[in-house]
């Protein structure tokens, strides 16, 4: 990092501190609108600071301390917050594009309405975080800690939740289409009215989870543990496939069959939906009756 970049960050932080003291002349909200961060600020301590609508573009905030910070409406573009502490921070309505929050701490954070794509939350602590109505398409949450997190009405389509710990989490009405939940722990979680179309649930544990009205169409359930799951019925399982699944008594699931498991199953299902038998050929014309003989 160049000296100029470091100086810019230092000056920006100094101005922010001064503006926080000058409350008589400038409101905190107005100060936040002018706040823009770039360059390096690793290990910065911004706990409890008002940073509403702040913009972080290409910034390096590795291991920064933002405990209880007000980051409502903040923008995180291509910035690195790996191992940062954002516990109890308010990020409602924030925007995250290509940001790195790997191993960051979001315990008890308020993240409802966050919008993002390609966000890296691998191994992040999101315990009891409120992520309701968040839009995190195609994001990485591998091995994240989502215990008791609230993700109702969130959009996580195409996201990777492999090996997460999401015990007692709320995924009700959540869009998890084509998501990867392989090997995750979801005991006691709620998937009521969730959309799991085309999702991979292979080897995941859902004992005691709630699946009332959940859509499992084209989902791969190989090796899944649904023992004690609530709200599951045969109609739901008939739309999915898998082998070696542990299911509530009396329920079954068909094997995926063929190469690549559920993808093969999806293809066969789509073909069966679109293919129809060819129309029957038209009936040959009726043989004309011979003419009646003339009367003499």
Structure, described:
With about 300 residues, the chain is largely without helices or strands. It has helices at about 5-20, 30-35, 235-240, 260-275, and strands spanning about 35, 55, 75, 95, 115, 135. The protein is elongated and about 60 Å long. About 50% of the residues are buried.
How far is the first residue's CA from the last residue's CA?
118 Å
DSSP strand tally = 6
Order of helices and strands: HHEEEEEEHH
Kindly provide the radius of gyration, computed on alpha-carbon positions and rounded to a whole number of angstroms.
Answer: 28 Å
Number of helices: 4
Structural class: little secondary structure
Q: How would the global form be characterised?
A: elongated
Strand arrangement within the widest β-sheet reads 1-2-3-4-5-6
Low-confidence stretches: 1-34, 259-278
Main sheet attributes: strand count, strand direction, barrel closure: 6 strands, parallel
Share in helix: 10-25%
Q: Mean of the pLDDT scores? A: 83
Which terms would index this structure?
elongated, little secondary structure, disordered N terminus, six-stranded parallel sheet, 296 residues, 6 strands, 4 helices
Quick structural gist:
By secondary structure, the chain is mostly loops. The protein is built from four helices and six strands. It is elongated.
């Amino acid at each position: 990092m160049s000296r100029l970049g470091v100086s810019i960050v230092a000056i920006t932080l100094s101005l922010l501190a001064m503006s926080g003291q000058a409350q008589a002349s400038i409101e905190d909200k107005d100060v936040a609108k002018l706040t823009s961060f770039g360059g390096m600020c690793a290990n910065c301590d911004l706990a409890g600071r008002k940073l509403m609508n702040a913009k972080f573009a290409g910034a390096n905030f590795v291991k920064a301390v933002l405990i209880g910070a007000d980051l409502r409406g903040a923008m995180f573009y291509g910035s690195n917050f790996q191992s940062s502490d954002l516990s109890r921070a308010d990020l409602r309505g924030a925007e995250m594009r290509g940001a790195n929050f790997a191993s960051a701490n979001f315990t008890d954070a308020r993240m409802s309405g966050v919008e993002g794509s390609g966000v890296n939350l691998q191994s992040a602590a999101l315990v009891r975080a409120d992520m309701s109505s968040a839009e995190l398409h195609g994001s990485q949450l591998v091995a994240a800690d989502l215990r008791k997190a609230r993700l109702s009405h969130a959009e996580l389509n195409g996201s990777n939740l492999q090996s997460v710990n999401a015990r007692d989490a709320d995924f009700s009405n959540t869009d998890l289409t084509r998501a990867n939940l392989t090997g995750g722990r979801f005991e006691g979680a709620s998937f009521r009215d969730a959309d799991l179309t085309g999702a991979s649930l292979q080897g995941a544990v859902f004992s005691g989870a709630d699946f009332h009205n959940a859509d499992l169409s084209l989902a791969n359930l190989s090796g899944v543990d649904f023992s004690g799951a609530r709200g599951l019925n045969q109609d739901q399982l008939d739309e999915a496939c898998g082998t070696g699944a542990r299911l509530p008594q009396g329920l079954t699931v068909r094997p995926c069959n063929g190469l690549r498991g559920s993808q093969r199953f999806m293809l066969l299902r789509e073909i069966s939906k679109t293919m129809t038998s060819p129309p029957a050929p038209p009936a040959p014309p009726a043989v004309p009756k011979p003419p009646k003989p003339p009367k003499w």
